[in-house]
Structures are given as C-alpha cells and as structure tokens.
Prior knowledge:
- The chain contains eleven helices and eight strands.
- By secondary structure, the chain is an alpha+beta fold.
- It folds into three domains: about 5-120, Orthogonal Bundle (Butyryl-Coa Dehydrogenase, subunit A, domain 1), CATH 1.10.540.10; about 120-225, Butyryl-CoA Dehydrogenase, subunit A, domain 2, CATH 2.40.110.10; about 230-380, Butyryl-CoA Dehydrogenase, subunit A, domain 3.
- Bound molecules: flavin-adenine dinucleotide.
Amino acid sequence: xxxxxxxxxxxxxxxxxxxxxxxxxxxxxxxxxxxxxxxxxxxxxxxxxxxxxxxxxxxxxxxxxxxxxxxxxxxxxxxxxxxxxxxxxxxxxxxxxxxxxxxxxxxxxxxxxxxxxxxxxxxxxxxxxxxxxxxxxxxxxxxxxxxxxxxxxxxxxxxxxxxxxxxxxxxxxxxxxxxxxxxxxxxxxxxxxxxxxxxxxxxxxxxxxxxxxxxxxxxxxxxxxxxxxxxxxxxxxxxxxxxxxxxxxxxxxxxxxxxxxxxxxxxxxxxxxxxxxxxxxxxxxxxxxxxxxxxxxxxxxxxxxxxxxxxxxxxxxxxxxxxxxxxxxxxxxxxxxxxxxxxxxxxxxxxxxxxxxxxxxxxxxxxxxxxxxxxxxxxxxxxxx
Length: 385
Ligand SMILES: Cc1cc2nc3c(=O)[nH]c(=O)nc-3n(C[C@H](O)[C@H](O)[C@H](O)COP(=O)(O)OP(=O)(O)OC[C@H]3O[C@@H](n4cnc5c(N)ncnc54)[C@H](O)[C@@H]3O)c2cc1C
C-alpha cells in the first residue's frame, strides 16, 4: 500500500493547478451566472492532454487511469473552475467506448473525446424512473439494419456542448417482449432528437436538458457493446462517474476551505484574527479532517478501478461519492459562516457554492441510494425497497 502519489501524478497535479489558477473563480463566476460553459478552459485542458488523460494512448489519450483524471477534476475544482463534463465525456462515455466499443467506435470517438474537440453527454435519468433505473422505458426497435429509438430523458448535462449523447435505453426483445438495457451513441443533430433546457436554480456553467427522442433513426453500429451485457458495460462507466463526482467535491471543498482559512487568518474583530476563536477553528478543522478522509476513499476507489477490480471499486466509489459530497457541503457551509456577511457577497465566490455543493448529494446517484447500497451489499442487510 502506497499513500504517496507518483512523480508523474504530482507533476500532473501541479500542471493542472497552474492551469486552474490562470482561469479560477473570476473566470467561472460570470459563466455560472449566465449558465454558459467554460469552453476556453475546456479547449486548453484538452490541448494539454488533461481531458483525455485516462483514455488509451493508441487513440490519442494519455494512457493513464481514473486516478489521473480524478486529479484533473479535483485540481480544477480546487481552483474554482471545475469542468462538469469531465465527469461525463472522458470518464463515463470514454471509458465505456474504450472498454466495450467496436474498433470503429473507438476510432471515431476516442481521439476527439481525448482532445476535447468532441464532447459526449450521458443520458440515463428519466422522468418516470428517477433513481430506479430499472424502470427506464426509452426503447430501441430494429428497423432493417437500423435502430429506431424513442423515449424521454431528464436532467441531462451539457447536451448543448455535445456532439452526441450516450443514451441508456432498452431493446425490444422480439421473442418475449421483455426489454433489456442497451447503450446507444445518439448524435445531437439526429432527426427526431429534441432538447429543452431546464431552468435549474444552480449557478453552474453547464446546463441540464430534457430530451425527447421520437423514432430517432440510428445505424446498426450505434449500439455500444453487446445487447445482453449492457448492465456490466453501464457499471464500467458508472464507477468512473462516481469517482469523478467525489474528486470534484473534494476540489470544491478545498476551494471553500482555502478561502475560509485565509480570511480567518486576517480578519480581526476582537483584536485577534477570528481564526483564533475555537468556535471557528474547530469546525474548519473538522471540515478538513472529513475532506481528507473522503479524498483518501476517492483515491482508493480510483486505484481499485485502475487495477481492474470493478467490484471493489464499486463499493469504494459509492462510499467516496457519499463522503466527498457530505464533506464538501460542510466545507462550503463553514466557509460561508467564517466570512460572515462576505460569505454571501459575490466578490468572495462562496455563496454560489451553497447550491452547487449540493448537486453531488443528489447526482449522479443520491445520498439515500448510496446508503441503500451500503446497507444491502456492504452490511448484508435486507433490501429495503
Ligand atoms: C445538476 C444535475 C446534473 C445531472 N446530470 C445528469 C446527466 O448528465 N445525466 C443523467 O442521466 N442524469 C443527470 N442528473 C440526474 C440525477 O442523476 C438524478 O437527479 C438522480 O439520480 C436522482 O434522481 P431523481 O432526481 O429522479 O430523484 P428521485 O429518484 O425521484 O428521488 C427523490 C428523492 O427520493 C429518494 N429516494 C428514491 N428512492 C429511494 C429509496 N429506495 N430509498 C430512499 N430514498 C429514496 C432520493 O434519494 C431523493 O432524495 C443530473 C441531476 C442534476 C441535479
């Protein structure tokens, strides 16, 4: 067991932190208010090899793993300029295509996903299914060599930036009428594909969309991997998603804590810096402890994933996502409190994080669904729902 990052990982961390410093919260804040993506940062991160650091070298990626992509996600968030689509495009979609796509799908998508020139969104959530993905009804039926895909999705991030969405649907099983999960690459300019932006109350650059798919005609090779093995393929992408959500939360928590600590060292209202009062110092220290613990679990999850242990990574990734979301919410809350009125002043960049920090408590999988997973699979308790 080794708790020290390699020299390459440390160098990556420094390089991403440098990039993040050049953009920072000042760049992000107006975009978050206007709900416009951080396109320049995305392009530069892509050119620098950061977006595709986890993708295979032979398809233009960095040939590293989720540990490295998590470093990218954490450091950008720690600089106040997190890129949400890192969670989706290289982590979920890139991973699934790299592991299960055909050679043609790999050639077509991976180099552009790695360079950041193309973005692929990911659509699993449906209005009538929610957390219960077994109830999704988006259905693909064969029409000659093609597929016709119909259904509805909700809360899908970054569709306006994406060239395609990796849609989780089901194929119509001709023999039994039963439906099976299957993954399709759906171009965002396909006929019958419509999107509507959802008016979210979260100040973050990337927008969420409702999707309406009405007999979208797809070529036979739009299906990623096997029809019958799609559940395993899906999970191969969901663990990286959770690891990235955890890394992003850790970064956001660091950002908030950094602001709080530098303020608490300087601000005096009773003749000593407010950080000398244990009423502030202890909750900040507690937030730091919880953040470091969450980071450790996220690193364990990434390390297990990179070693090929999907099952072990699944449990750790769920726990890391839970712990990091909670730790980040606590960091932001205490940071706002530490700055008093300034905690809610736009200039200090913390007020907007109050809602943004809550996103990972809900997405990609809610706090309650993780507790259900841990209760059932880690503790062996009966399934409760
Ligand atoms: C900012 C944002 C971005 C998103 N981006 C994407 C995206 O790119 N792609 C995508 O597919 N989805 C995306 N989502 C959707 C997200 O994954 C879902 O919101 C999430 O999975 C919860 O589903 P739901 O909103 O339908 O809540 P519901 O499933 O309706 O749950 C509502 C509440 O009930 C609780 N609950 C449900 N079932 C149980 C149970 N059995 N036991 C205990 N509690 C339960 C939940 O924990 C939650 O608190 C995004 C969401 C947000 C907010």
